[in-house]
């Protein structure tokens, strides 16, 4: 069973969206969610989890010693799961990485806040920094939910159709082709005739051509990668 251990200052945010739809129905059956309140691992009267940045500057930085204790509790020695720190400076999360994770035992996910975490913690605990996009959120919780949702939907038995996870954007290096359904005519716009022709070979060829067209137009970076440019 895939096991996601999330370290956060706001465990009340979970399961949130992960408790609904596909992920919610599979929770407890195909995957488990464990939550660790980072503040529980702080010491002192005020249980301080952050401090001012060395060298000066605005904001606060999450303390390495507190986070280390939290990670060690979530992932005892020998735990084979990868350790992630959700960060806008991390490597972009890709569908390929998601598929690899779905085939593994789970993940330990640290949700940062404030100006980030002490760099020594990242080094000492072997955290892999992961980004879900070129923008900054208030914290890592929403990013962690994105990572978990992307993985959980690929776990065996979660999606209703075996091909649902293979015929979609990024799986073949392309964006997905357009989709249509009834009614046949919507505001004078008809479903492309080829899709109702019954000729599966022509449908497959059309879908491939449309996927290539959309990828060229919207994601030239993906198209260049696919063509080896």
Automatic annotation (TrEMBL):
Main location: cytoplasm
Record GO biological process: tRNA N1-guanine methylation
InterPro entries: Alpha/beta_knot_MTases, tRNA_m1G_MeTrfase_C_sf, tRNA_m1G_MeTrfase_TrmD, tRNA_m1G_MTases_N, tRNA_MeTrfase_TRMD/TRM10
Keyword annotations of the record: Cytoplasm, Methyltransferase, S-adenosyl-L-methionine, Transferase, tRNA processing
Domain called tRNA methyltransferase TRMD/TRM10-type: residue spans: 3-224
Subunit structure: Homodimer.
Family, as annotated: Belongs to the RNA methyltransferase TrmD family.
Protein name: tRNA (guanine-N(1)-)-methyltransferase
Organism field: Phreatobacter aquaticus
């Amino acid at each position: 069973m895939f096991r996601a251990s999330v370290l956060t200052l706001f465990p009340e945010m979970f399961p949130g969206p992960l408790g609904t739809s596909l992920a919610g129905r599979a929770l407890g059956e195909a995957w488990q969610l464990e939550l660790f309140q980072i503040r529980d691992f702080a010491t002192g009267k005020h249980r301080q989890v952050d401090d001012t940045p060395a060298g000066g500057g605005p904001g606060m930085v999450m303390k390495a010693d507190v986070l280390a204790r939290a990670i060690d509790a979530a992932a005892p020695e020998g735990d084979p799961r990868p350790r992630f720190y959700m960060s806008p400076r991390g490597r972009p999360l890709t569908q390929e990485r998601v598929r690899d994770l779905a085939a593994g035992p789970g993940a330990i996910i640290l949700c940062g806040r404030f100006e980030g975490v002490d760099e020594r913690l990242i080094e000492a605990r072997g955290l892999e920094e992961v980004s879900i996009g070129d923008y900054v959120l208030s914290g890592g919780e929403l990013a962690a939910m994105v990572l978990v949702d992307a993985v959980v939907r690929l776990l065996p038995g979660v999606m209703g159709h075996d091909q649902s996870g293979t015929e979609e954007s990024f799986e073949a290096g392309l964006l997905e082709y357009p989709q249509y359904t009834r009614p046949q005519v919507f505001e004078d716009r008809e479903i492309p005739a080829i899709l109702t022709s019954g000729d599966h070979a022509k449908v497959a060829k059309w879908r491939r051509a449309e996927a290539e067209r959309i990828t060229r137009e919207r994601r030239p970076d993906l198209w260049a990668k696919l063509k080896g440019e």
